[in-house]
Amino acid sequence: MASKNGYDRVPLVVSDSDEDAGMISYIQRKKNRQTGAHQKPLLVAGALIILVLLAVIAALCYVLVKRTALTGSTTKTPPSVTEHTQTIADFKANVITAKPTEDTRKQQTPNWKVTFGALGSESVMRLLDIDGDGLQDVVFGAAATADLASISTFDPKKSLKVFCEKTGRSYPCIGTLIGMRGYDGKVLWKIPTRAGSLLNNCEEFDLNLDGHIDCVIGGRSGTIEAIDVRNGKRLWEGSSRFFAKTWNFYHPMALPDFNNDGVKEILVMHGGNPNKDSDDHNRESGRLILLDGRTGKGMGIRSLEMPNSKESYQSPVLYTYGDGSQYILFGSGGETIPGDFMMISLPDYYRYVMGLSKDAIVPHTQGAYDQWPHLPRQPETGIIVIFTGVAKGVMVPPLMTDIDRDGTDDIVMSAYDGLVTLLDGRTMTSKWKAEFPGMESYSTPAPGYFNDDDVLDFMVHWSSGAWPTYNSSKKVILNGKDGSVIWQTDMKNFEMSSDLTIQTTEPNRDLYLYKTKGRGAHFYQDVTGEVHGVGVQRNISILPSGKTPGSTSQPYDEMVYKEFIKYHFQCNSGVDIKSEIFLMDRTTADTPIKILETVPKEYNYHPSISWESGIKNKSLNFCALMIPEDRTTSAIGDVDGDGTLDLLTLIGHTGQMVDEHYSYDQMLYETTIHKINLAPILKDPEARVPMKIQSKLPLARYHQEKDASLLQSLPLQQQQWLAYFGTKQNGHFKNKS
């Protein structure tokens, strides 16, 4: 929504709560019961009726006042959805506003959505109880639009404390971690963080030993912090002489309590210099860094650097062999840099970073560590190279599962240059490979039972082109037996999020939750970024309000405008790139169940005279088209305690604002969190959408099986893959016995 004065007047503030309607409905029911009780004295009944009428009038007045206070919104919200819109400026203090009460809800609550204006997010969604009411709540990270733009031009040699001071704020100031109550979307707290978080571990750590789970967040610009989610306070900010100010941190992993203080230690991958161009192959080595879980301070005399000066973007995972031997799995390389998939034993890693002898005893480790003698180990570090990429790296964390049920976990690894392979845990050799030439993926394969055999299958999606430009993508399910494609659908836009699965009580029959973007769209961008229309007529001479070719008072270069719209989506031009979320099992493979659809938004604003000045030209009205973006992985849980599953998902809208000469001015972001009850949608036949797919499976036979609306999910505690990196956030899928 645009204000009268343009972008500088955001935020939006919208509240369309159903609570008022519920109050009136309750009073009306009470009135009906009382007027029907003719046995009571007439005087009492009359008095009660008068009181009820007064209450109804008061409630209606309250509703009218609330509605007149609303700002206009062009988005229509279904009656079953409660909608709120906020900006980061709405938050005043880091205070928990919800406490456990006797009437804590444990019944299905309405769907809700909360929109944060001027806020962008790349963060995964995490669900855990943060207010002590026994129900799951929502935690995610974000960063303000203005900071996302400003930090890109900040001198990397200076500290972010200087950046915060220059903008009149205290450090930290760029990122924000937000906690929301799960059943109604109420913001419970917000915590400023160094920068925007990417991957948060809110499952494996109790860092202050208070008996409650804490979150360790990893993100951009050297962000690694521990958060006590029960009181909305930071426990520590990580520190080590091996940190680089501008590099990223990825998913923090729990290691044994090496120093015997009762708290697990933390392993993090540190890498990804944002100041390097894609064609600059002279990169700094990524680093595996050990942190003290209680304090966040670095442990040891050195970090483990990636061999051959290779960068790294992959979150490490801990692989456990049958005898208890544990190995750290990690990868190197990037979008344009080849790299390896490697492992190192936990004792070897600890000895190396601590500077201990190779026969030193490592606390809290067990096992023989004599596996895979045929694989060479690097003499100094003990690193074992399992796979070497040809032209690109290994960026996506693997998943571990005992797919053949031989008692040893196998490894599903995805390489960035179009390869998925299943590694046999006993031999560490490939059992099968699935290749997708000319395609790339940021997504971890999602495990689930799709066809009717007893072997786990995997959903992956690949984008055509080369980073950072893609022009199409495909989503596939691989047969766990041999890696062959058993289901596929094609799209015109790429996807970065990872998929989820819901385990059901039916043998070998799970539900996949996945996102698509641009399905059926008539507009798309090719690998050059040029906009194309398919089957539509697009008038490229449409000019923004207030601009006319040849105007002397408002000089205009028509060629500049035509070049601009050649590479930018335009308002009022029929752009129909939508984001969709689907739920599917094998019986609905060609008619998946649509959970959510998000369409583009138009944002009207007054352009700046120039991007340096910031002065608005209020005689001109421009429009920025905000395209839905799904770059984060959703989470599934039971946030209202009704015994059925809810989807919590983050949908972003992004657009580009320009000055009056069509030069880039700033990016426009909006982030919306949705809570959606899945059970009613599963039972709604109108939610099933015909989809063009490719499959060799006997779909006609599958259609005769029990309808998907009758499926029962396993209890929440038995679900394996309801969040990024798995429900336990450790990359491990426990196969059905």
Question: How would you describe this structure to a colleague?
Answer:
The radius of gyration is 27 Å and the shape is globular. The N terminus is likely disordered. With 737 residues, it is mainly β. Among the domains are: 50 residues; 201 residues, no CATH class. α1 runs antiparallel to α2. Strands 1, 2, 3, 37, 38, 39, 40 and 41 form an 8-stranded mixed β-sheet that branches. Strands 4, 5, 6, 7 and 8 form a 5-stranded antiparallel β-sheet that branches. Strands 13, 14, 15, 16 and 17 form a 5-stranded antiparallel β-sheet that branches.
Short description:
This protein has 737 residues and is mainly beta.
How many extended strands? Answer: 41
Shape type:
globular
Q: Rg, please? A: 27 Å
Strand content: 25-35%
Runs with pLDDT <50, length 5+?
1-50, 59-79, 87-102, 535-555
Number of helices: 8
Reported for the largest beta sheet, the result is:
8 strands, mixed
Q: How far apart are the termini?
A: 52 Å
| Structure class | mainly beta
Mean pLDDT: 84
This entry's quaternary arrangement is single chain
User: Helix content range of the residues, please?
Assistant: 10-25%
Short descriptors:
737 residues; mainly beta; 8-stranded mixed beta sheet; 5-stranded antiparallel beta sheet; 32% strand; globular; disordered N terminus; membrane; Beta-prop_FAM234A_B; transmembrane helix; FAM234
Topology:
Layout: E1 14-15, H1 19-35, H2 42-68, E2 81-87, E3 111-117, E4 119-120, E5 126-128, E6 137-144, H3 145-150, H4 160-166, E7 175-180, E8 187-193, E9 197-205, E10 214-219, E11 223-228, E12 233-237, E13 248-249, E14 253-255, E15 265-271, E16 287-291, E17 304-305, E18 317-320, E19 326-331, E20 340-345, H5 346-354, E21 384-388, E22 399-401, E23 410-415, E24 419-423, E25 430-435, E26 439-440, E27 446-448, E28 457-466, E29 469-478, E30 485-491, E31 500-503, E32 510-517, E33 523-525, E34 531-533, H6 558-566, E35 579-584, E36 593-598, E37 601-605, E38 622-629, E39 635-637, E40 646-658, E41 664-677, H7 678-682, H8 699-702
